[in-house]
Amino acid sequence: MRFTYYEDFLALVFPKTCCVCKRSLFEFENHLCKICVSQLPITSYHLRPEDNDLKVKIDGLTKAGRLFSFLRFTKRGMSQKILHQLKYKHKPELGNVLGRMYGQVLYEYYAGQWDTVVPVPLHPVKFKRRGYNQSERYAQGLAEVLQVPVSTALNRMKFTETQTNKSRWQRWENVDRVFDIANGASFLGKRILLVDDVMTTGATLAACANTLLNAEALSVDIAVIAAGRM
Ligand SMILES: [Zn+2]
After folding, report:
1. How does DSSP classify residue 47?
2. Which SS3 state, helix, strand or coil, does residue 45 take?
3. Is the pTM of this model over 0.70?
């Protein structure tokens, strides 16, 4: 409770600001101002989810079907600022906001095509440090609009070292067999939307997709917040 009072106090002294441009927000705005929302670098992946550069990147690693990304990632661009706020500035709700925004796009084209939304899990150590899984927050926003449940039954088993300075193959070896399904959970026959914050090499997402497909999921599609050259 004390924390809530403290937050209220902060909000009085320091009004909430847009996480991109730092302008003070109106009551009806949530983490992003209307101007920044109108300028988001939204992709058109939802128009060609089976034939795009993300799909090309992940082909050969997994049989995941369709690939979606809400934003195009550019260094020092809006999407990088947003991801930084989401991951390192304790803004879990921003993940829900982004999920609801992209959920509206996906709902328009793909309503009823998924049974559940599954976030890529964080390692427990990272989860403890951050206090939340940003991908799970994105999953919640998407699921809310798509009107399906979120499943957190995909687990991460062991800590993976940092992925930088590793070859593509080493990265793949590093994440393969890292994920498993919680005891008693079933993805049998399910059409899954697997989600993460970013897609870089695609190795982590592919490993997750394969774990779900091995658990006899009917199909796995992938949606991230941002993708592009990292
Ligand atoms: Zn703004």
Report:
1. G
2. helix
3. yes
Q: How far is the CA of 17 from the centre of ligand 1 (A)?
A: 8
Burial class (CB within 10 angstroms; exposed 0-12, middle 13-18, buried 19+) of 14:
exposed
Residue 25 Cα to ligand 1 middle (Å)? 8
Question: Please, are residues 230 and 153 in contact by the beta-carbon 8 Å criterion?
Answer: no
Give which of 104, 82, 102, 110 is closest to 94, Cα–Cα.
82
Q: Which helix (H) or strand (E) holds 2?
A: helix 2-13
CA of 20 to the centre of ligand 1 (A): 5
Query: How far does the centroid of ligand 1 lie from the alpha carbon of residue 146, in Å?
Result: 26
Between the CA of 8 and the centroid of ligand 1 the distance, in Å, is 22
Around Cβ 50, how many Cβ atoms within 10 Å? 9
> For the chain, how many residues are written?
230
Token output for 39: 């300028």
CA separation for the pair 106, 158 (Å, rounded): 33
User: Closest Cα to residue 155, out of 181, 125, 118?
Assistant: 181
Task: Report pLDDT digits (tens) over 116-165.
Answer: 999 999 988 889 999 999 999 999 999 999 999 999 999 998 655 555 56
At which residue do the structure tokens 């997402």 appear?
205
What CA–CA distances, in Å, run from 53 to 60, 169, 180, 200? 13, 19, 28, 12
